């Protein structure tokens, strides 16, 4: 080896401990930057996106140092920043379906989406949380060994520790570079590792249980306000509804709202007063506003769901203590108190004479035999136990929430009966309107033609002897009237129940509609059986109405009809590339389609942003034959 090479290697070994010390300072800065980012981002000023983008400077520095000192460059993993919002021709700034006069709000929202949807943001935050425990401890080993050697220079072990610290410097830098690449390098598109697949969902469950613990305190305060005065009941209901949706989303189950429907506005009596009765009492109000407030209070007080909400708000802190706090305490205490804090105090004890405090002293006050055990030997198993039990405890918490926050069987049946009464009334109204239409078509169409044909036959009867030529002309006219009446009858029958629907089923009927549509239509069908004939007719006429709307109002060039069946639900989707902007109740027939489907417990979901595309999704519960 040449002299220059020897000097280069010597310099690398000499600089490695100093570089490790710099990496330790970077690790110590991580908690500070993390706390500042969290506080400023939640404050919302000037912008969470700006705060997170500025916080990326620390991971960027670590990425640059690790790539430079370990010999493996680490590329930036971030998505490119969004373009500033542009003004439309009408002077508005658009963000999704919302319009703004100023570009500040859409730019603010676009920045939020940029940092929130970038996976590198979460990886940066995880790195700042874990680097003091992993990278900082790893980089601190060579400086600590050298520091211990300087303090114990009068003993051989001191010289050995210092030599080991110098020798381990380059290898430590390479290991630190590999650790930095784990979270700060761009992610290659491949499956997650088994360790990450096990850890990620359990860590998510721990964070959710921590949120449950924090939210239970707010719930307890709302329970006190709930009892203190009725004015807090609406706020408590909104909070409980949000928690109901949150618990359902976290546990993969939908928890319906159990509240009774809000009462109608009070009607004035003969004397002009508004009477509101409550249990064995009643009052007369001269103001409709006061009467409405009294009736709303009566509605809230008599609704059993209000008292179940109060019971849940009161019991939620106890559930948090029993179900949520243990895994959170095990993970936080095991990683932070017994792992991270013990590591740093043990390192300080090596370089600071007389420093003897250790977090294990607190553990020793409970179990004296554990005071001398290294913290990570207890902390890592404790954190693993917390991670292992967190998903099961989160599911158990969701079941407890479901017991108190879901509708009771009685309330569910009551709401079901009310829904059925409304839908059946709508179906009866639709049937009556359909019968009136058929009667009108028969009266104004076929019946009028048959009457005219009878009159023509009478005229021909009188002319047949005197003017055979005129009689033949009248008979030809009667023949034409008979053909026209027959054609109208066929059209009317087809409108009642198309023959192709009865003969060949819904798929071929929809294909026929697509061929008759005034634009390019593509039909995609995936059915393994045949629905009930009444359901087929409802879907057929709904699709026919939608195609008519598309041809009249959408200015579309193509429409796609998709028909599938899964999980006991028949789903039909009609998508067009038109201008969008369709809304129910705007005279487009969508409300009629919704009423038609509601008679079969079906639903119509419409997505039609300005500029398109328009997607109408119909779902009906059914079983295929």
UniProtKB/TrEMBL annotation:
Domain Histidine kinase/HSP90-like ATPase: 534-624
One cellular-component annotation, GO: membrane
Segments traversing the membrane: 125-146, 205-228, 310-328, 335-357
Gene3D superfamilies per UniProt: 1.20.5.1930, Histidine kinase-like ATPase, C-terminal domain
GO molecular function: ATP binding; phosphorelay sensor kinase activity; protein dimerization activity
EC identifiers of the protein: 2.7.13.3
Keywords for the protein's UniProt record, in alphabetical order: ATP-binding, Kinase, Membrane, Nucleotide-binding, Phosphoprotein, Transferase, Transmembrane, Transmembrane helix, Two-component regulatory system
Superkingdom to which the source organism belongs: Bacteria
Catalyzed reactions: ATP + protein L-histidine = ADP + protein N-phospho-L-histidine
Descriptive protein name: histidine kinase
Organism this protein belongs to: Nonomuraea dietziae
């Amino acid at each position: 080896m040449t002299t220059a090479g020897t000097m280069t290697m010597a310099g690398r070994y000499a600089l490695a401990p100093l570089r490790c010390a710099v990496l330790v300072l970077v690790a110590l800065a991580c908690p500070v930057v993390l706390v500042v980012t969290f506080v400023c981002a939640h404050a919302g000023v000037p912008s969470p996106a700006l705060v997170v983008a500025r916080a990326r400077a620390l991971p960027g520095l670590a990425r640059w140092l690790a790539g430079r000192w370990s010999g493996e460059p680490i590329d930036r993993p971030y998505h490119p920043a969004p373009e500033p919002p542009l003004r439309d021709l009408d002077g508005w700034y658009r963000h999704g379906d919302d319009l703004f006069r100023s570009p500040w709000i859409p730019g603010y929202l676009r920045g939020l989406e940029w940092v929130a949807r970038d996976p590198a943001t979460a990886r940066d935050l995880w790195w700042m949380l874990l680097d003091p425990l992993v990278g900082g401890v790893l980089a601190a080993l060579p400086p600590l060994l050298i520091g211990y050697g300087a303090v114990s220079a009068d003993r051989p072990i001191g010289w050995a520790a210092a030599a080991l610290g110098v020798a381990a410097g380059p290898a430590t830098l390479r290991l630190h570079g590999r650790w930095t690449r784990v979270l700060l390098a761009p992610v290659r598109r491949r499956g997650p590792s088994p360790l990450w697949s096990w850890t990620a969902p359990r860590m998510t469950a721990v964070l959710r249980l921590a949120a449950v613990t924090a939210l239970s305190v707010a719930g307890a305060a709302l329970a006190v306000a709930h009892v203190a005065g009725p004015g807090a009941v609406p706020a408590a209901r909104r909070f409980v509804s949000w928690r109901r949706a949150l618990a359902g989303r976290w546990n993969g189950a939908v928890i319906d709202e159990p509240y009774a429907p809000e009462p109608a506005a009070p009607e004035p009596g003969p004397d002009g007063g508004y009477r509101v009765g409550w249990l064995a009492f009643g009052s007369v109000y001269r103001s409709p506003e006061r009467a409405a407030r009294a009736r709303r209070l009566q509605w809230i007080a008599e609704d059993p769901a209000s008292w179940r909400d109060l019971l849940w708000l009161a019991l939620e802190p106890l559930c948090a203590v029993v179900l949520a706090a243990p895994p959170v305490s095990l993970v936080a205490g095991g990683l932070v108190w017994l792992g991270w804090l013990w590591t740093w105090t043990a390192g300080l004890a090596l370089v600071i004479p007389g420093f003897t405090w250790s977090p294990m002293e607190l553990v020793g006050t409970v179990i004296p035999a554990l005071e001398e055990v290294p913290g990570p030997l207890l902390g890592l198993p404790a954190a693993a136990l917390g991670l292992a039990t967190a998903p099961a405890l989160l599911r158990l918490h969701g079941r407890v929430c479901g017991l108190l926050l879901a509708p009771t069987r009685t309330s569910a049946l009551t709401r079901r009966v009310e829904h059925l009464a409304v839908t059946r009334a709508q179906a009866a109204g639709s049937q009556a309107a359909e019968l009136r239409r058929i009667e009108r078509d028969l009266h104004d169409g076929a019946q009028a033609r048959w009457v005219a044909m009878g009159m023509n036959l009478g005229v021909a009867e009188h002319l047949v002897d005197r003017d055979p030529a005129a009689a033949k002309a009248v008979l030809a006219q009667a023949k034409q009237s008979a053909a026209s009446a027959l054609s109208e009858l066929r059209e009317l029958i087809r409108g009642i129940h198309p023959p192709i629907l009865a003969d060949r089923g819904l798929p071929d009927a929809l294909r026929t509609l697509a061929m008759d549509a005034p634009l390019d239509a593509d039909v995609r069908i995936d059915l393994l059986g045949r629905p009930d004939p009444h359901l087929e007719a409802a879907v057929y006429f709904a699709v026919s109405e939608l195609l008519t709307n598309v041809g009249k109002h959408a200015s579309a060039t193509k429409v796609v009809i998709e028909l599938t069946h899964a999980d006991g639900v028949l789903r039909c989707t009609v998508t067009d590339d038109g201008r969008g902007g369709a809304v129910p109740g705007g005279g487009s027939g969508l409300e009629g389609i919704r009423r038609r489907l509601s008679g079969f417990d079906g639903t119509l979901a419409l997505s039609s942003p300005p500029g398109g595309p328009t997607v109408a999704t119909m779902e009906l519960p059914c079983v295929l034959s």
